[in-house]
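Fold it.
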Amino acid sequence: MSRRIPWIPVVMVGLFVAAVVYVNPLDAGRELPPRPAADHAEHSGVPDGGDGLSDNHDGYALSPVVLPDRRGDRLPLAFRLVNPDGAPAVPHEPVQSEPLHLYVLREDLSFYQHLHPTRTGDTWTAAVDVPDGGVYRLYAEFVPKERAGGVPIVLGTPFVIAGDTRYVPLPAPAPTVRVGGFTVSRLEGTADLAAGRPGTMRFQVSDARGAPVTALEPYLGVYGHASVFESMTQRLTHLHPTVPADTRATSRDGVLTFHTQLPQRGRHRVFLQFKVMGEVHQAAFTVIAT
C-alpha cells in the first residue's frame, strides 16, 4: 500500500491534530476480539510518567530544535527538555544505565530505532535513520532530578517526511523470529495478553543449531531491553526484565523474561534487543492484548 505524504503548513497541521483523532490506516477495518465484561483492572488513562503521545506531561516538555525533513541515514536531530519551572530538565539518574533513551518509530511500526543522545548545554543531539516517507514519532524517556526514585517521564513528538510512501502491514503474531543468525522464540507462542493485568513474556534466544545461547551479554544493565507500541496510537509501554544482569541468571539458558502490563486492548509490536559478542540484535513480535 502506498500513498503520497504532502507538505502541510505547520499551522494547518496543528489545527488538524487538534480537530481529529488519528487512526492508523493499517488498522482500519481490522476486527479485534470481543471486549470482555467490565474489568476495573483495564484502564486507558495516561501512566504516571506519560506514554509518549504528548510533548508535555506533568509540567515537563519536549521542544524540538532540529527534526529530520528527508529520507536518509544518520540525519541530525536536536531537542530540549524543560522542567515545570521552565528551566532545562536534567536527568537525575540513569534509566537502565543511560541518562536518556530516545526511540524513533514509524507510524506503521515497521521501523524502530533506539538511541542514546548526548547533551551539550540544554540541547540533546543524535543522528537518526529515516528509511522512508510517512509519519514518525520521537520518544524521550528519562528520570528528572526532581523525581529521583520515581518512574521515568516519557515525552513524544511527531515529524513528517513528505513524498511517496510505502506502508508495511503489521505482521500477524508469530511464535519465532530470526535475526542475525539467531532464532528468538516467544515461549508463550502467540497467546494473547490480558490488558491492564500484570503478567510476563518469555523469549528464548537460540543459535543457528537450535541450541540455547548461553553467552548473552549485559546490555543497558540487563540482558534484554523491550519496548512495546500499540498499533493504532503508537502508545509506548516499557517492559522491565525480571532479573538484573549482574546475577547472570538469564544468560545460562538464553531465556529473557519481562514483566508485562499493557494498559489497553489491541495489537502491539514488541521490539526486543539483546547483545551477543558485542553486537546488539533486535527482534520484533506482534502481540495482542484482549
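The first strand starts at residue 2 and ends at 5.
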